[in-house]
Amino acid sequence: MTIKTLGIDLAKNVFELCGLDESGDIQLRRRVRRDTLLLAVAEIPACVIGIEACTGAFYWQRQFEALGHDVRVIAPQHVKPFGRRQKNDRNDAEAIAIAVIQPRMRFVPKKSVAQQDVQTLHRARRRMVNHRTALVSQMRGILLDRGIAFGQSITRARSMIPRIIEDRSNELTDLCRETLSSLLELMSEIDKRVREFDRRIDRVYRESEACRRVGKIRGVGPKTATAVVAAIGDGRDFDNGRHMAAWLGLVPRQHSSGDRTILMGISKRGDQHLRTLLVHGARAVVRTAVGKTDRFSQWVNELRERRGTNRAIVAVANKNARIIWALLAKNEEYRPAI
């Protein structure tokens, strides 16, 4: 029995293995528990192992590679077409093994422990920001229920809510004022935590040479630079910058047939957080390009006038994604257009 490809359906406690030979025939089916998984994989000669991208996938990738195997992580949506019959662990492991041997299969970029640490930092900050947004929305709802309204903005909420609480001419009760004061204190505590995460991200940015190179691009700051480097590493998992932009969902969706080509809005595939950071940075570039005469700003202004602001923003985000790939994959310094 010679196993060339091994598909492993990852889980918390029970793992399903499916081994294929060189011709694609099934030679191994085995169900193991978590504490015996590495022992079972160590008994198999070096081969290609396929696993789905999920919680713990990169940990197991490092463990299997330490045993001499070639490990490839596949996005779940690329495995689904190869699933047959009913969905269970046995069929899932078989689908993963079949998917990993496909000649045009795309794999998820590998992540080191350091990259996962930076991603954890970004996720924790994003959790705090989401809590803060929900908290402001709740306070706005409470006040709107009392007939008091103000615009949507965290900055405006910070200035308006304390004044509304102190204003004794409105119809807020003492209990409502106490409740809003407690929520406002909680928002201040969240602001403190967000600033703490920002300082940690800035420290990571300063200590990383790759992040500093990426951060020289217009519209890319410490948060975007650290998030991108943590997600793609050196960028060499992509053939070119266009593929990376497509992976980030910054290209049009296509619904074409025959001679009829239909391009729609952006696909929005891939990492939503990375795409959001790039788009926010591009929005700042488009906003500040007005009145500037350098070649890049002229291109941005002409594009905005010809295609509109939103399309110009996405185009700048797409261009920045391609530039980031070139800097990381080719280990080059950023050279701005003159």
Query: What's the β-strand tally?
Result: 7
Return the structural class. Answer: alpha/beta
Mean pLDDT: 92
Low-confidence parts: none
General form: globular
Please write the string of helix (H) and strand (E) elements. EEEHEHEHHHHHHHHEEHHH
Radius of gyration, in angstroms, nearest whole number: 25 Å
* N- to C-terminal distance: 62 Å
How are the SSEs ordered, and which strands pair?
Elements: E1 5-9, E2 14-20, E3 26-33, H1 37-42, E4 48-52, H2 57-66, E5 70-74, H3 76-79, H4 89-100, H5 113-145, H6 154-166, H7 174-207, H8 209-214, H9 222-232, H10 241-247, E6 252-254, E7 263-266, H11 272-288, H12 295-307, H13 309-329
Parallel strand pairs: 1-4, 4-5
Antiparallel strand pairs: 1-2, 2-3, 6-7
Protein name: Transposase
Transmembrane segments: 37-60
InterPro entries: Transp_IS110-like_N, Transpos_IS110, Transposase_20
Description:
- With 338 residues, the chain is of the alpha/beta class.
- It has three domains: 5-100, ATPase, nucleotide binding domain (Nucleotidyltransferase, domain 5); 113-207; 215-329, no CATH class.
- It has 13 helices and seven strands.
- A five-stranded mixed sheet has the order 3-2-1-4-5. The chain has a two-stranded antiparallel ribbon with strand order 6-7.
- Strand 4, helix 2 and strand 5 form a beta-alpha-beta unit.
- Helix 5 packs across helix 9 and helix 6 (154-166) packs antiparallel against helix 7.
- The termini are far apart.
Task: From the structure above, extract its key features.
single chain, 338 residues, two-stranded antiparallel ribbon, Transposase_20, transposase activity, alpha/beta, Transp_IS110-like_N, Nucleotidyltransferase, domain 5, 3 domains
